[in-house]
């Protein structure tokens, strides 16, 4: 095995170097394959996880600025801790971890798939819209997409959102036709 080269097929690099040039290269580019592991878990649904609007702050359009109210329950934290244990176990079985690559919980608000902000349901006291996306108390307002998902999901709700949007569109078509 030469200095700084990968080991036999299927084994990670030793990271050894013999010369100043190869030592610099080894610090800059690690030739070993890199694998990222991610565990997803559903979060408990809470009525107080929501979007409200500020009475004091305005957004760039002069409208009340949105404020995300979000938190984790004790059960959410326990599930996240268990997921971190599992990913650490799996990662250790695959080889040496990348420094700084320890499991971490992303900060609140870092999701790319916000959902439940206009939660659907059967009760206007606990939801924003009905199962067709019709907003309670507003005859001509229908919503669709991630916002109406009112149950826990772990990741990538795109297909669910599309199905809900199709159902909302059908409700709009029925409204227009007077059915």
Automatic annotation (TrEMBL):
Residue ranges occupied by any Glucose-methanol-choline oxidoreductase C-terminal domain in the UniProt entry: 50-165
Keywords, comma-separated and alphabetical: FAD, Flavoprotein, Oxidoreductase
Keyword ATP-binding in annotation: no
Ranges annotated as biased composition (Low complexity): 1-17
Coiled-coil ranges (or none): none
Listed cofactors: FAD
Protein name in the entry: Pyranose oxidase
Organism: Actinoalloteichus caeruleus DSM 43889
Organism lineage: Bacteria, Bacillati, Actinomycetota, Actinomycetes, Pseudonocardiales
